[in-house]
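Case study: glucan endo-1,3-beta-D-glucosidase.
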Amino acid sequence: MICFFKNQSMAFPTKIALFLAMFTLFSITEGGMVGVNYGRVANNLPSARKVVTLLKSQGINKVKVYDTDKAVLKALSGSGIRVTVNLPNEQLYNAAKHQSFATAWVKYNIVSYYPTTQIEAIAVGNEVFVDPRKTTMYLVPAMRNIHNALVKFKLDETIKVSSPVALSALGNSYPSSAGSFRPELVERVIKPMLEFLKSTGSYLMVNIYPFFAYEGNSDVISLDYALFRENPGIVDLGNSLRYFSLFDAQIDAVFAAMSALKYDNLDIVVTETGWPSKGDENELGASIDNAAGYNGNLVRRVLMGGGTPLRPKANLTVYLFALFNENEKPGPTSERNFGLFYPSQRKVYDIPLTMEALKHYHEHEHNAGDRSIPPVTGDRRVYTRAGESWCVAHEGAGEEKLQLALDYACGEGGADCRSIQPGSTCYDPNTLEAHASFAFNSYYQKNKRAIGSCYFGGAAYIITQQPKFGKCELPTGY
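Here is what the predicted structure looks like once written out:
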C-alpha cells in the first residue's frame, strides 16, 4: 500500500523507488559510522598483516590505534582502512615544550606513511585528565604544536587533531541537561581545547562506557536502558526530552557541557565504547549475552542514522572497544575481556559490523562465536517484554526523515495503512506525525514488536501508554 496525503509530498510510485529512499535513509553514508579500537596489550595476538585481513573480512574500514607502530601502519598501507593514530601521554611534555619534537614526530610517524596509509586523525594523549603523571597542563600546547607540524607539511586540512576525554571530565552528567565540565578544568584546559577544536574544524573525542555506570548503579539504572533494549525511557525534566538509552543520555551530557561554555556547534566522535563479555563476581552485567546485546544494538543504532534526543540530526561515529581480548591488561577481569574476537581470530560473539550484515541480524543470534553456549531455537525474530507497547513518530527527526520512513512503512515495509487514507477512520488528524505514528505502529505490531522494528533511522520510538491522535487510537496485536 502506497500512501498519498494532501499535506505531504507524493510518496514514491514504485517499490524500487521506495527501496532506494530507504537505502538512502539507512545507508552508512547517510547514517553513522562504526570503527574499532585495535589495542595490543597482549602477548598472543596475530600479526598486523593478519589483523588487517581480519578487519577487511569483517567490512571494518575505520580503526583506531594507541601508538604509531611501524608494523601496524605498514600493514594498513593500501588497505583502504582509515586510521586514527595516537601520540602517547608520555610524549606530551616534549610535544608541548618543543615544536621541533612535534614536527619531527609528525614527519616520522605521519608523513612517512601518508597517504598510502590513510591516517585521518591524531589523538593527542588519551584520557589525560585521569593520567596519574599529571600531564593535563601539556595537552593543549601539544595539540597546537602537532597541528602546526601538519600545517608545515600541508596535511592540516585532511588530518584532524583532537584528544579522547573520559566521561569523568564532567563534573555533572545526570541529568543530561545539567551536564557540565569539572570546574577546575574549565579555564585551564577545557575552554582552550574546545577553542582549538573549533578553530581547526576538528571534533571532541569522547570515551563513553555505559557498562561502568550500570555496574555501579544497577539499583537505579535498568539493564534494558543500558543495552538499547525496549524500555519506557526516562524523561529529563531539564529539557523535557525522553531518553531510551544510557549511551544517548551520556553523549547529550557532553553536548550540554559544551553548550554551557558556548561551544554549541562542535561534533563528538565516540572514540571508545564497549561492554565486557566476562568479569569478576562483583562486576555486575559483564557477560557474553550483555556484551553482544550492547554492541549489536549500538551498531544498529549508529548505522541506521539519527543523532541523540538533544541533537537528532547529528549522525555519530563510534569506535568499539576493542578488537581483541587483551591478556596483559591490568585490573579486574573485565579489562581483559572487551574484545569482539579472541586472539585466535574466532568471534567472542556474533554481531553485525556493516549495514549488509545488519539486514540479517536479530539480537541473541550471537552464539556462533562460543560453541559452549547452545544455539537459540524457535522464532528468533521475537524478543519482547511483558506488557503492551506502541511505536510512534519522533517529531524531532524532521519532516524529511519522517516522510521517507512513512513511505517505506506503507510500501516496502508492508504496514497496513488503509486507515490513514483520505476518508478512512484515522485520516484525521491529517498530520505527518499522526500518519507516520499509525504506519510505524502497524509495522511494529506486524513484526511482533521485535527489537529494532521501531527505529526507522531514529524517526520512531516506543511508548508503553496507548497513544491517541484525535479520535484514532493506535491498536496493538496485529
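For the exam, be able to explain this: The two ends are 16 Å apart (CA to CA).
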